[in-house]
Amino acid sequence: MRMVKSLLLGSAAGLVAVAGAQAADLPVKAKPVEYVKVCSLYGAGFWYVPGTDTCLKIGSFVRVQTSYNNTTSDVPQGAGDNSQDGKQDRIDTSNFGFRVRSGVSVDLRTQTEYGTLRSYMDIGAQWSTAGTSVAGVNATSADTLWVDRGFIQFAGFTAGRIRSYFDINSFAPYGYSNVRMSGDTGALGIYGIAYTAQFGNGVSASLSIEDNGQASGGRGHSVVNLNVLSNVGVISGTGAIAATGSVGPFTLGATTTDNEGQSMPDVVGSLRIDQAWGYAQVSAALHDASGGYYTSATGSLTGSQVFGHPSDKIGWAVSGGFTLNDILGFKGDTFGMQAAYAEGATGYVTRATGAWMMYNSGNNMGLGWTTDATFINGGPVELTTVWGINGYVQHLWNPKWRTSLYGGYVEIDYDDQAKINIANGGVVGGVCTPLGFSASNANVTNGGAFQSAGVTNCDPDFSWWQLGSRTQWNPHPDLDIGVDVLWTHLNTAFKGFGTLTSTTNTGRPAGLYTIDDQDVVSVMFRIQRNFLP
Fold this sequence. Notes:
This protein is mostly beta strands.
């Protein structure tokens, strides 16, 4: 037995020795290994794409938010572009909204002999509940894909979907609501091609051409033909809102526009300085505010060359603003302000480029219509004047807690001729006396129903205030948890009394209404995880 065991052990030792000798004779070749290298040229998060000299950063965020009195979860109810939700009835208004949004950003940069070649893309998807219910059920909006950035930068040029070079301050770092007191395009982006010249010491100047179409996310082009008639029921007594037998282009919660198609992009210029203390900028823009065609005698919007058209009109806007860092010696605290003025370029002052409509308890309502301009048959385009001012301050209590206070004011003013045209509805014998004089006993037949008591104030000018505060907790630098409370106050157009002539405005009874200032208090709660924003 011992002999067998010795033979086995000896054989095994021999095999190992032979195998080792043969292995020692084989050539050794290590596999090439590609290691991802950190790219320190552009800040944290960049790394070299293996085999190239291009640096890449991938970022993302996931946002969950719940809102009260905000349409589609971020715009106060009735505050322009979502006015149907301002009805405050059981059918048309949902007081609570919910949204989940997630996005991914891709930032690619390569050094060239002309400087950095950069391409940037920010895309994502969202699910949200609709602000307006369907058959009394809080309906959901279709899942939405969005692209708010997609641009190329090279040798001073930027082209693609960008933030407008007119914009200065953004409220995104200080609140959650989509405020109506700023024309900032940062949330959705805008198409543009720009060139920026750097003069050193943080001073730069930019010139850009940008999209002016509202449907594509541009500044908006809203020229109203006061001769256009429709059959949508509104308040009787004001010519542009109700002429005998029909109603005008200012209907409840909507505006009928008569624009010329895009014939030129907006031209934007800005001068800016960026320093350790913060930044400051002045901006100017030219905006096409040309109308479409005059209408037929029946007031139909035909778009026909037969009736001619008003001469082209160019609107314009200017703005100035700043943001200061570490104010009063408090590290991380910021303070900023901005003012803007526009004639025929409303979208540069506010993103609320639609109709306002807010109801209160009983027969009490507030109204307003934002336009670039108005005109009547045979008349010129009358530019609408808009101006606004806004600001914010943020204090860091400690690295994990911060509170901001923000607010602003916007005013819409129609010139004297536009007011006369609006009061008369573009026709002789309009039912409302122009420029605020009483017409309380006017008798109006509208849609076959006899009405009395016309609007007692024909002035279409209106304005609004917004004041908000957000407190945010950051238990981790990449995690935001906060609450935002926003008060919106509408100083109504046509303040006085008017008669609602149709039940088209679902959920609200016809009859005499008090047209007065209105208030909406909205609340938003948000949780958001950020990664390399």
